Amino acid sequence: MHLQIQQAKLGYSKPLISNADTSLNLGEVCLLIGNNGVGKTTLIKSILNQVPLLKGDIFINHKNIKQLSAKEIAEQIAVVFANSVVPQNYTVEDLISLGKYIYYPFYFELKKEDRKEVAHIIEALDLVQYRHTPLRNLSDGNLQKAFIGRAITQNSPVIILDEPTTHLDEKNKIIILKTLRSLAKEKHKLILFSSHDWRLAKEFADKIWYVKNGNLYTGMVEDIVLQHEELTCATLFEINPEYIPPHIIAPDVYKEMLFSLLQKNFRTDLSYLTFELTDKQWIISGLSEIIRCESFEEIIILLKTIH
To answer: PANTHER family from the xrefs (predicted)?
Structure first.
């Protein structure tokens, strides 16, 4: 496990979250969700050792954060807060390039491969036309994308983002979150981001951390969502044109969970399969034999052996 939280109590004079016990691996995308004031930002700052734990431990790459310097934490974790300070007179390219300077003194010039990587990230975030635009002239949405670009160029194994899609329209939300998911899967990064929009978990995240009533509920998105009725009212993004869904026979909320799970994990035609939920088991037909799965995780493991 690359990020571990063990029996942690988080907060200030009074705890906001108690008995938090969870972990994440490289290659996973996790949504941190909960109402305002429940402790989401405090949890992020605790992982960064900016807010001391009231109890318990947090480990990054098997090292206790209490023993790590600020520079060592920065090498492990790139972070974007919702209200970041905007550097005066910087352009988009300047800000995104800043992510590289944790590896060099500020008076060093970036290497050719660094500049090439910065250019690639600017293109991936749909910011090419703003490359030389001063940050003060950007919309809130494009400014947020530039800060996310800086975190990506830092090349830390963990990227944490506090409300990264707050100022973004639907199109730019999808650009950002597809980019982050691609980083997790192709570059083996651990992505943790907070949001009020749980739909983002269904379409883009593998795991969910849900803060509610002083507790941290964690697990696969589909399992946690179905355990909390208040999280089950949303519509689909329909983001993956290459995905052709199977036939799904189940109550609407389970149908939606399975649709989203398969869409974000498979770029392929699954129309030859039928999934039917019966007595809390998924019966899968269309293969050489009928398969029964008791959880969404078993479904993913099964299909990854086929595709």
So the answer is: METAL TRANSPORT SYSTEM ATP-BINDING PROTEIN TM_0124-RELATED, MOLYBDATE IMPORT ATP-BINDING PROTEIN MOLC
Alpha helices, DSSP H, located in 135-220:
140-153, 170-186, 199-204
Q: Which residues, 6 or more positions from 69, have their beta carbon under 8 angstroms from its beta carbon?
A: none
141-186 pLDDT per residue, tens: 888 889 989 999 988 999 999 988 877 788 888 888 888 898 899 9
Closest CA to 261 of 207, 185, 187, 306: 207
> Would you say residue 235 lies in a domain?
no
- What pLDDT, in 10s, does the model give residues 8-17? 999 998 899 9
Which helix (DSSP H) or strand (DSSP E) does residue 42 occupy? helix 40-47
* 169 in the same domain as 275: no
Give whole-number Cα distances, 179 to 111, 127, 140, 172, in Å: 24, 13, 19, 10
* CA angle (188 as vertex; 23, 57 as ends), nearest 5: 25
**Do 125 and 259 fall within a single domain?**
no
Give the domain CATH number at 83. Answer: 3.40.50.300
**Measured between alpha carbons, how far is 38 from 11 in angstroms, rounded to an integer?**
10
Question: How far apart, in whole angstroms, are the C-alpha atoms of residue 194 and residue 191?
Answer: 10
Residue 134's φ and ψ, nearest 5 degrees, are -60, 140
**Domains in the chain, number:** 2
Domain housing 148: 3-227
Query: End-to-end alpha-carbon separation of the chain, Å?
Result: 26
